[in-house]
Write a structure and sequence with these properties.
This protein has 265 residues and is an alpha/beta fold. The protein is built from seven helices and 13 strands.
Length: 265
């Protein structure tokens, strides 16, 4: 990989986890490696600080935002959902960080790439709703991770997705009509936000990808895990992370255009 003097900065919001009484802001390194190795950007952790953040500062200084998966689910109060089943893991600090950050990023045309929990956050932030337990819906498959498998095999390709013609994902993949992806989620999009376009669905009709309608930059969410080591070297994952990286590089260059050049243009 070739580094120049100024790599784009991609903010990755962290999960706040409790480790034997210690609160830790955590991001899995597989996302960081994908940003450095495939998107050719630099990654910075965005702590789960909620409204203690100055979101305007983050938006002004970041060239992209990668929303990761996570063990927790978006709290249903954010989309007027029914209370979660007892034992469901939530992360209020992450919700209170990502949801306003997403809204401001979309408004400011900051590139956004949302993965698994991230696509759910993208949908909720823009006004959509979620299914909390997809596998309990009539006609739906079990999209959860199969924990009976060895850890190294839990992210093997599981099912196909049908890609919407002439959409963002269709263009990014070079015109693919169908792909095969992994699956590790219990929740999924129910009603898409009005500002989102469905980019792909699984064979049982679960929404697998969305894009922000009218976005001037890369603003895409996917329900699978393109960053996982078993997936990240596939043509689909490479295309996604390279397209996101290209958008981040475009924003980084635009941010460093001098006022004189901007005025002259």
């Amino acid at each position: 990989m070739i580094f120049d003097d100024s790599l784009p900065l991609v903010g990755i919001p962290a999960c706040l986890v409790n480790d034997e009484g210690r609160k830790i802001h955590r991001v899995s390194d597989k996302y960081i490696h994908a940003i450095y190795d495939v998107s050719e950007c630099a990654a910075v952790l965005v702590p789960a600080m909620g409204d203690r953040h100055d979101f305007r500062t983050l938006i002004d200084r970041l060239d992209g935002i990668l929303l990761t998966g996570g063990a927790s689910n978006v709290e249903p109060e954010h989309y007027d959902g029914v209370p979660s089943r007892r034992g469901t893991l939530h992360d209020a600090s992450r919700d209170n960080t990502t949801l306003p950050l997403i809204r401001q990023a979309v408004a400011a045309s900051v590139p956004v790439f949302a993965v698994c929990r991230g696509i759910q956050e993208l949908n909720v932030a823009l006004g959509g709703t979620l299914h909390q337990l997809v596998h309990e819906l009539p006609g739906k498959s079990d999209h959860r991770m199969d924990r009976r498998l060895p850890a190294a095999e839990r992210f093997v390709p599981r099912h196909t997705i049908d890609i919407t013609p002439d959409g963002v994902l269709h263009r990014v993949t070079g015109g693919a009509a169908r792909e095969i992806v992994n699956s590790a989620h219990a929740q999924a999009i129910d009603k898409p936000a009005k500002g989102l376009k469905v980019e792909a669905v699984s064979e049982d009709g679960v929404i697998e990808a969305v894009s922000v309608i009218g976005s001037k930059t890369f603003s895409l969410g996917v329900q699978w895990h393109p960053e996982h080591p078993l997936a990240v070297k596939t043509p689909l994952s490479i295309a996604l992370f390279k397209a996101f990286g290209a958008a981040c590089h475009d924003r980084e260059r635009a941010r460093h255009v001098s006022p004189e050049r901007t005025h002259a243009a």
